C-alpha cells in the first residue's frame, strides 16, 4: 500500500464498498477492479511466478495479464476486465494463485 | 516492387552505382542468419536484406523455438548430420550473437524429450533414433526411457506416457529475440535492410541481378513460401508448401514446471508454457481453430495433467515452409551463376549452420566434405 497517485475526476463521486485483502474500502462506483486498486494505492496486484517480483496493472485492456487477482474466491482474474460490485472480495499478491 | 526504389532513391546513399555483393530476399531467420554469417566472414561485403511486410506469412515470428535434432533426417543421412552439426554449432553462435547484440536470446541446451503414448510408438522412435545414430556415426546421442526413467527426469507425467526418448543435444531459444538479435547484429556490422519490400520480379542482368530496383552480383532467395514462385524466375525448382502449426500460450507458471524441450511443449524463460505440435494442410490459411486448439490442449494435458490448471492467454497459427520430404533445400541456379535458393522449416535449429558452413558454401570457401554434405540437400532428390 502507498498513498494513492490517482484521484477521481468527478467531485464527490457516488461510492461503492469493496473488500481488499479483508479490509473494507469505499471507492467511486463504476471503476474497474484494477482502477479501484490503484485508486486505493494497491500498486502491486500479483507476484511473478518465476522472478517473484511484484507486478502491477499495465495495459488495462486484458492483454498483459499483469493484473491477475482473486475475485470472490476465483483466482487469476484480470482486474482490468472486471467492474467492481458492492462488497466484492478482492485478494492481491497471492503467490502461486495469481 | 517499385515502391521500395522510390522511397530509397530519396536517400543519397542508395543512389549507388556499384551493385551490392549480395541481395538476400527475405529477412526472416534464414535470411538474417545468412546475412550474419556472410558479413562476419567477409566484413567488406555490401549486403542488402529485402524484407516483406508485417502482414506477410512469417514463419519466423510464429514458430516454437526448438533447436531440435531428434528424428530429423532419420531417413535422410545428410539432413541428420546437418541438424546435429547445426545444434552443435549453436552454443558458440549464441555466445557471439548475445555478445554482439546485447540481447539475451534465452538459449538453453537442457536436452529434449519425445514422449511415446504406446509401446508401438516407442519402438518406432527407437528405430528412428538408431537410424540417426547410424547416419551420424554415433554422433547423435540419445537414451530410450521407460516410464519410470521418464518420470525420474520429468515428474508429473500422465498415466498414458509409456516412455520417452531423451537426447542431450536438443535445446530451445526465444525465436523472437533470436530474430531481433540477428537484425541488430547485422545492422551493427553494416548490413543494409529494407522492410516492406515485396519482391515481385527478379531481372537477370548481363552480370548479376536487378531486384526491386537494386542491383546485386549475387542473390539468395530466403523468402519462405515465396521461394517457389521466385525460384522459377531464376530457373530453380524450389518445391515448398505450407504446413500449419497452431500454438497455445499459457499464463506464466513457476520455473521448472516443465524442464526440457519437446515438440508438444516447452517452458519459456519467462515462465510461459508453449503448447504446439499440430500439422495441417490448409493452404495459406494461418488462422487458429477451436478444434485443433482443443486437440493439442488435450494432448498436452495427457502428457502433463497438472497443466490443466493453467489458463491460456494467447493462441496463433503459423505456416511452416515444408519441402516434399521435410528436409532443407540448398540450391544454386545452373542457368544463372550467382543465384541461390535456401528453403527450410527449421530456421531456428539451423540458424548456426546457416550462419556458419552454409555461408562458406555460398562464398565457395568450403572444404570438400562439407560441400558434399550441403549439396546432398539440393533439389536433385526430388527428380524422378
The structural class of chain A is mainly beta
Radius of gyration of chain A (Å): 13 Å
| Overall body shape of chain A | globular
Cα end-to-end separation of chain A? 18 Å
Fraction in beta strands of chain A: 25-35%
Q: CATH class of chain A, please? A: Alpha Beta
Number of helices of chain B: 10
Mind explaining what this structure looks like?
The complex is a heterodimer of chains A (about 100) and B (about 375). In chain A, the strands form two sheets. Chain A has a five-stranded mixed beta sheet with strand order 2-1-7-5-6, with helices on one face. A two-stranded antiparallel sheet of chain A has the order 3-4. Chain A has about 100 residues and is mainly β. Chain A has one helix at about 35-40; strands at about 15-20, 25-30, 45, 55, 70, 75-80, 90. Helix content of chain A is about 10%, strand content about 30%. Chain A has a single domain (about 15-90), classed as Beta-grasp domain (Ubiquitin-like (UB roll)). Chain A contains one helix and seven strands. The model of chain A has no long low-confidence stretch (mean pLDDT about 90). With about 375 residues, chain B is of the alpha+beta class. Chain B folds into three domains: about 15-60 and about 175-240 and about 325-380, FAD/NAD(P)-binding domain (3-Layer(bba) Sandwich), CATH 3.50.50.60; about 110-170, no CATH class; about 240-320, 2-Layer Sandwich (D-Amino Acid Oxidase, Chain A, domain 2), CATH 3.30.9.10. Helix content of chain B is about 30%, strand content about 20%. Chain B contains ten helices and 17 strands. Chain B has helices at about 1-10, 30-40, 75-100, 120-135, 145-155, 175-190, 225-235, 290-305, 350-360, 370-375, and strands at about 20-25, 45-50, 65, 110-115, 145, 165, 170, 190-195, 200-205, 210, 215-220, 240-250, 265, 270-275, 310-320, 330, 340-345. In chain B, strands 1, 2, 8, 9, 10, 11, 16 and 17 form an eight-stranded mixed beta sheet that branches. A four-stranded antiparallel beta sheet of chain B has the order 13-14-12-15. The radius of gyration of chain B is 21 Å and the shape is globular. Chain B starts with a helix and ends in a 9-residue tail after the last helix. The interface of A and B includes residues 48, 49, 65, 68 and 76 of A.
Amino acid at each position: 500500500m502507498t498513498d494513492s497517485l490517482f484521484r477521481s475526476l468527478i467531485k464527490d463521486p457516488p461510492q461503492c464498498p469493496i473488500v481488499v485483502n479483508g479490509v473494507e474500502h469505499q471507492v467511486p462506483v463504476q471503476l474497474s477492479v484494477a482502477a479501484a486498486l490503484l485508486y486505493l494505492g494497491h500498486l502491486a496486484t500479483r507476484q511473478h511466478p518465476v522472478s517473484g517480483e511484484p507486478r502491477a496493472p499495465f495495459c488495462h485492456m486484458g492483454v498483459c495479464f499483469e493484473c491477475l487477482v482473486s475475485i470472490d474466491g476465483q483466482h487469476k482474474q484480470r482486474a482490468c476486465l472486471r467492474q467492481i460490485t458492492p462488497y466484492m472480495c478482492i485478494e492481491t499478491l497471492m503467490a502461486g494463485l495469481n | 516492387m517499385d515502391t521500395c526504389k522510390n522511397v530509397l532513391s530519396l536517400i543519397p546513399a542508395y543512389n549507388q552505382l556499384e551493385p551490392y555483393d549480395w541481395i538476400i530476399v527475405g529477412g526472416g531467420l534464414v535470411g538474417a542468419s545468412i546475412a550474419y554469417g556472410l558479413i562476419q566472414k567477409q566484413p567488406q561485403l555490401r549486403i542488402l536484406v529485402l524484407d516483406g511486410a508485417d502482414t506477410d506469412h512469417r514463419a519466423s515470428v510464429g514458430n516454437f523455438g526448438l533447436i531440435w535434432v531428434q528424428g530429423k533426417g532419420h531417413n535422410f543421412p545428410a539432413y541428420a548430420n546437418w541438424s546435429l552439426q547445426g545444434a552443435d554449432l549453436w552454443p558458440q553462435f549464441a555466445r557471439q550473437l548475445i555478445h554482439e547484440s546485447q540481447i539475451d536470446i534465452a538459449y538453453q541446451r537442457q536436452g529434449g524429450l519425445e514422449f511415446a503414448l504406446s509401446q508401438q510408438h516407442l519402438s518406432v522412435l527407437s528405430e528412428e533414433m538408431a537410424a540417426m545414430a547410424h547416419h551420424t556415426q554415433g554422433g547423435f546421442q540419445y537414451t530410450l526411457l521407460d516410464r519410470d526413467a521418464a518420470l525420474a527426469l520429468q515428474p508429473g507425467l500422465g498415466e498414458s506416457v509409456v516412455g520417452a526418448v531423451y537426447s542431450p543435444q536438443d535445446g530451445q531459444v526465444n525465436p523472437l529475440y533470436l530474430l531481433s538479435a540477428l537484425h541488430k547484429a547485422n545492422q551493427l556490422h553494416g548490413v543494409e535492410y529494407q522492410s516492406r519490400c515485396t519482391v515481385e520480379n527478379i531481372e537477370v542482368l548481363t552480370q548479376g541481378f536487378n531486384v526491386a530496383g537494386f542491383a546485386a552480383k549475387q542473390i539468395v532467395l530466403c523468402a519462405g513460401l515465396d521461394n517457389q514462385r521466385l525460384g522459377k524466375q531464376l530457373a530453380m525448382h524450389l518445391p515448398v508448401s505450407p504446413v500449419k502449426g497452431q500454438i497455445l500460450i499459457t499464463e506464466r507458471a513457476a520455473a521448472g514446471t516443465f524442464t526440457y524441450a519437446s515438440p508438444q511443449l516447452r517452458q519459456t524463460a519467462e515462465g510461459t508454457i508453449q503448447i504446439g505440435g499440430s500439422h495441417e494442410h490448409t493452404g495459406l490459411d494461418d488462422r487458429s481453430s477451436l478444434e485443433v486448439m482443443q486437440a493439442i490442449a488435450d494432448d498436452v494435458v495427457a502428457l502433463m495433467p497438472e497443466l490443466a490448471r493453467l489458463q491460456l492467454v494467447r493462441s496463433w497459427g503459423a505456416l511452416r515452409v515444408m519441402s516434399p520430404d521435410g528436409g532443407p533445400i540448398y540450391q544454386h541456379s545452373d542457368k544463372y551463376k550467382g543465384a541461390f535458393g535456401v528453403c527450410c522449416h527449421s530456421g531456428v535449429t539451423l540458424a548456426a549452420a546457416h550462419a556458419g558452413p552454409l555461408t562458406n558454401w555460398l562464398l565457395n570457401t568450403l572444404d570438400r566434405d562439407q560441400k558434399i554434405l550441403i549439396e546432398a540437400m539440393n533439389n536433385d532428390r526430388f527428380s524422378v
